[in-house]
Amino acid sequence: MSTPFLSVRDLKVHFSTEDGVVKAVDGLSFDLEKGKTLGIVGESGSGKSVTNMAILGLHDRRNTALDGEILLDGKELVTATERELEQLRGNKMSMIFQDALASLSPYHTIGAQIGETYRKHTGASKKEARARAVEMLRRVGIPQPDVRVDEYPHQFSGGMRQRAMIAMALVCDPELLIADEPTTALDVTVQAQIMDLLKDLQQEFGTAIIFITHDLGVIADVADDVLVMYGGRCVERGAKNEVLRAPQHPYTLGLLGSMPSLDGPVDVPLSPIPGSPPSLLNPPSGCRFHPRCAFAEKVEGGRCSAERPALEVVDGRGSACHLTSGQKRELFADYASARTH
């Protein structure tokens, strides 16, 4: 069995605050192969972005406790120095941020910002970096790249700014690309174009991609595998089609139930998940989803509130839930039936 390109094992990211310790990520494990896309989905505050900031080493070391293991092509990142991480960021691993306008400098041209990363990691001249920036803008589908390279972010539309961010992230041909909700602020037509662009570039470069989103519809379009996070933990993971067609955790089922279906009856009411995400300063005991779970009372002995369910993974498929397989088949089928009748 081949070694995964990215391997995360029992990752914990805890922040010290005036009010106490925030357990933003609390024991997360997953693998990612080259050329594959892992979709990480969950509500705001579930730990999605914190996980990936930890991979990139962008957390504040003064108030952040990082534990566990992050191996990128065999290189340990948890114990890496800032100098080592700087050599990897933008080169071997890169990130597309959600808000391109906030992430781009208004005082520098698009070409200068793309070229800066390229010069830092390759030692290229300004002329070579500008030529590389033009090439990357052409690759991401920006018209007249030799002209637009000298323009500023405010002269670009939202979709073009996001394309410029993708060009910047890919300028050094990184082997790992982290996309943090890169299409959230865009209209649906531009969203589709950006997702198609990422898939085309992945085929060209063989890049491993982590795609962070709260939108299962986006996951269905871009991901090979899905990791569902809740309260800083993974509650379900597996191949995209398996997770979306036959969820094995009540939270995943709830996320699907709160989305309209394009291939089902149009008059089926949506079923939002009751309550709010947990405070990670003082998270619930046991399963962190149990206060909002419609099935917690079906588990005998109050285990949901007392005992943390283990994430048992077999052939890449697993969920952290105390319900038995038989209970899930019965209860989840009844839930799905109620939505379609």
Automatic annotation (TrEMBL):
Residue ranges occupied by any ABC transporter domain in the UniProt entry: 8-256
Membrane topology of this protein: Peripheral membrane protein
Keywords tagged on the record: ATP-binding, Cell membrane, Membrane, Nucleotide-binding, Transport
Keyword presence, Metal-binding: no
Taxon lineage: Bacteria, Bacillati, Actinomycetota, Actinomycetes, Kitasatosporales
Protein name (Swiss-Prot/TrEMBL): Peptide ABC transporter ATPase
Gene Ontology terms: biological process: peptide transport
GO molecular function: ATP binding; ATP hydrolysis activity
